[in-house]
TrEMBL record:
PANTHER family in alphabetical order: REGULATORY PROTEIN YLBF-RELATED (PTHR38448), YLBF FAMILY REGULATOR (PTHR38448:SF1)
Protein's recorded name: Cell fate regulator YmcA, YheA/YmcA/DUF963 family (Controls sporulation, competence, biofilm development)
Annotated spans, Disordered: 124-143
Highest classification ranks of the organism: Bacteria, Bacillati, Bacillota, Bacilli, Bacillales
Pfam families: Com_YlbF
Organism the protein comes from: Litchfieldia salsa
Gene3D superfamilies found in the cross-reference section: YheA/YmcA-like
Polar residues biased stretches: 132-143
Length: 143
């Protein structure tokens, strides 16, 4: 069995990160973000939301519930309008796709490490038990 150093593993992780950064999903994300950053209307809407959010925090802090409700309604209205812009919808969708890819990679690594540990100890992958667990349980039975 080969053993690897943390540095070697981190280097492989960097290689994997570079591969992920060069996927269609990430490319689309970058292009959508660039279009959003170049769109003056979208920039103004985002600035308005940020400003209103600051007001909301202040209103909440000072217990001004009616003013807070009105500001939150304004935020929701601008957010709904923003979400209705096709490039914003596409950008949000691309964020989800990139996140799903990252989760898939993380879960695949995690599950494979677990399976490798179980298999290398002579355990039972289907039961998710290492060899020492299987061997210690087989000798004892509870009645």
């Amino acid at each position: 069995m080969a053993t690897y150093t943390k540095a070697q593993i981190v280097e492989r992780a960097r290689e994997l990160a570079k591969m992920i950064a060069e996927t269609e999903e990430v490319d689309f994300f970058k292009r959508a973000e660039a279009q959003i950053n170049e769109n003056q209307k979208i920039k103004e809407m985002i600035a308005s939301i940020k400003s209103l959010q600051k007001q909301a925090v202040n209103f909440q802090h000072y217990g001004k519930t009616e003013a807070l409700r009105k500001v939150e309604e304004k935020i929701d209205a601008i957010q709904a309008e923003l979400d209705g812009i096709p490039i914003v919808e596409e950008f949000k969708h691309s964020q989800i796709e990139v996140n799903d890819l990252l989760q898939l990679v993380a879960n695949t690594i995690s599950n494979r490490v677990t399976d490798e540990i179980i298999e290398s100890t002579g355990g039972d992958v289907l039961r998710g038990e290492t060899g020492s667990k299987v061997n210690n349980d087989s000798g004892s039975s509870c009645h």
